[in-house]
Amino acid sequence: MDDELRSPARRLRSESGGSPVYERLLVTEDREELAEVLTANGQPLWARELAALRLGRAGDRRAFETLVLLLNHRDSDRCVSAAHALYALADPRTPRAAAALATNELRVAYALTPVRLLIRLRAPESAPALITVLRRRLAPGDPYRRIALACVEGLGALGDPRARPVLDAACSHPALAAPASAALARLSME
């Protein structure tokens, strides 16, 4: 078991309450058995998550929908585990799904992990989504500074010149001024 599965496996073992189903899902090599957990009625969330993580890391696209749902979960540990599995899955639908989740203002409190996934993916959808999210976070009194900071840093890492106007605007926000200036400097180097 690699490090990216070890941490969620410990958390899910605790959630399972020592269920023998947990142990079976953790060790089985039968992808059909794992995929069945994703669609069977009455499966607990921990079982669906474990099956989706295992399938996603194995490159089985049947895990995609479950992983996207977990990417937008209120539990940040679930979001992070799903993001790692989605990255490993390398499904071409992932950037579009992550962009949709990141830009959904009704779920903005849960946008940090999709934003970080977009940065890691470096997909064509990444910079436009981050620009949109950052522009919204620059509104007076917006409480989501961690998301704004992730967007600023991500836009600097992506190096997309379309980000220049929103990064210029971020420079006028005290909490974002230094990272936005650094991101703009990175754009100038590219």
TrEMBL record:
- What keywords sit in the KW lines? Lyase
Record keywords: Lyase included? yes
Concerning InterPro entries, the annotation shows: ARM-like (IPR011989), ARM-type_fold (IPR016024), PBS_lyase_HEAT (IPR004155)
Q: Can the keyword Nucleotide-binding be found in this entry's annotation?
A: no
Q: Which Pfam families match?
A: HEAT_PBS
What Gene3D superfamilies does the record point to?
Leucine-rich Repeat Variant
Native organism: Streptomyces qinzhouensis
A molecular function annotated in GO for this UniProt entry is: lyase activity
**What is this protein's name?**
Adenylosuccinate lyase
